[in-house]
Amino acid sequence: MKKILFFTAILLLLPIISYAQLRDSWEGGDLQMQEFSIRGGSNTGLRLDPDNDGIDETVVETDGSITMDEVNYTGTDGVANSVLITDGAGDTLFSNDLDLDSISSVTMTIDEVLSVSYARIINLSVSEDLSVYGNTVLGGKDNEVQLTIVGNENQSALLVNVTDATGTGLAQVWHTGHFQNIDGVRTVAPPMGPAIWTHNATDEEPLRTGGVGSYDHTGGVQEQLFTKTAGDDFISEDASIGNWILLSGINLGAVAEIKRLVSADSVIVSGVGWDGDLPSQTFEVFSHPLFMSGDLGNHEFSVSNSGEFEVFSYNFTGGKVAEIELDSAAAQTIGLEIEVKANGNTGAVASVVDYNTGTMGANDVGAGFVVRIDETAATDATISTLLASFVSQTTTNSDAVKTAFLAQAGHDSALVVQGSVEEDPDYGYETTSGVSVDRVNSAGGGDDAFLEASASNVTIFDSNGDDILIGSDATFEDIAVNLLVDSDKDLLPLFWYSQAGGNWTLLIVQGDGTNGFQQSGNIIFNAPPDWTKDDEDLDGNAITDAYYVAITRNRPGAVPVLPTEDHFHTFASQDTGMTIDGKGYILPRASSDSAAPNNAIYYSATQSALVYKDSNGVVNDLY
Fold first, then answer.
1. pTM tops 0.85, yes or no
2. Is the pLDDT score of 327 beyond 90?
3. Which residue ranges make up each domain of the chain?
4. What fold characterizes domain 194-301?
5. pLDDT > 60? residue 114
6. CA-to-CA distance for 104 and 127, rounded, in angstroms?
7. Which residues lie closer than 8 Å to 243 by C-beta, 6 or more apart?
């Protein structure tokens, strides 16, 4: 019995000695051990109870997994690029599909750049707002959708909201797909394709897909020929309503309008910047876009079969509502072409000008259509050179009566030819900052720059308030302004006429064809009844006594490009050379026999009769 008690005591002391020795060995090394229990076994693994409360807070299982408090970390490895996730019930695993559902709030603060590379799809569903700050880059698997944003089934709020640091909205994507922003959109067209391409709501999908074909730009059977080798046939409607080809292969995004049907396999197209052959292309066919702005300055509009294109203004104070400028660098170029396919419909009209005068008074003028031809630079022109303001052309394939110009009832005059003769001004001055320079009779001092015969040309209206004066020994009613360089701004000119004693009165002009010296043109007015000669300009400088019209720049500030004159002409009157009145009566020009040219019909003021002056200068009565 005593032996049994002795051996029992020895066995009870062994663990104490082992623990004490183990503790001493640990405390003597780098690892400092506190009071805790440690147990291990082939079936139970390694268990740690740091606070010695009898509960194992950390357990290393025999399979290599680790349990810390309530979370079990798997000991089984995942495949490459997998991530460790929890099932929310205490177990973790490696997975290639990450589905974070119903997260109420996630806050992540990163000093630099967060880079997440993941080979599979990440689905993120949030019940509150998800805010991303800083530099965020999304990168995905090759040839897969990189980012998809899916709205809630009852979505009515924004899908995407981009703000500045103060929370001010910069850009939004609505739940309907609408996009809006506050500072505009800049897009760059792909080669041979559109920067902007818009369609009707019902034209979202292509008309035909799966086509294969090639484009022969030039030198083939026909120019600009697109021939399909696979897919649905081309149809006549493709050309009649202008459907479009969209390339979907190596030249993805390149587009061309179908202009003419050649056969079920071939069409003539007008490509956006297509300037070479394009072999073996896959393509789709779309309806004509509402608006396309594409590569190399190509633009297309369509109003479909019931739309409208409108340029609208209100309370307008600008210089012009719209401008089309052709800077020609080749023969046969056209500034504006209107093509009408009447298709047998009566009353089809290419162009209508509706002109509402509003309130008008004495000397007011207006016009529905004006053509200005500036032939200042046509120095090599001869009598064989033709410049026409209006040309009417027609075929002769039917019995229809073709009328080049139709003046309907109600006009006082159907045609008026103003026959006044242009002349060099007798006098002319330029006043700059109050200093007057003679530009017509300067004897070389002012270079006589206002005269057509002078090789000198001067910049005028250097500063606001500067003037030019055009004068004559007799009154006149028309000043022809010929500019070498046009102003790039309307100078808002004021017009004055002279009165004796250095007095000047505002002149109401009937028309300023120069548009504020932005182009060559005529300034037309009625000679005022109280117009008199004067020998002082608006600044009191001495000038030759004559009838003058002064023109003053009234635009303040800088004008980057000032006008440079070539020369000026005056016309004594708005004389009517010949008139066809509104009832069709011809009122010929009145002239003395001596002043009339040969081969002319006119009313002879010498004989008070209608006459014809033949090629030999003999005047013959016509009745």
1. no
2. yes
3. 1-31, 194-301, 422-574, 588-621
4. Thrombin, subunit H (2.40.10)
5. no
6. 5
7. 207, 237, 257, 258, 285, 286, 287, 288
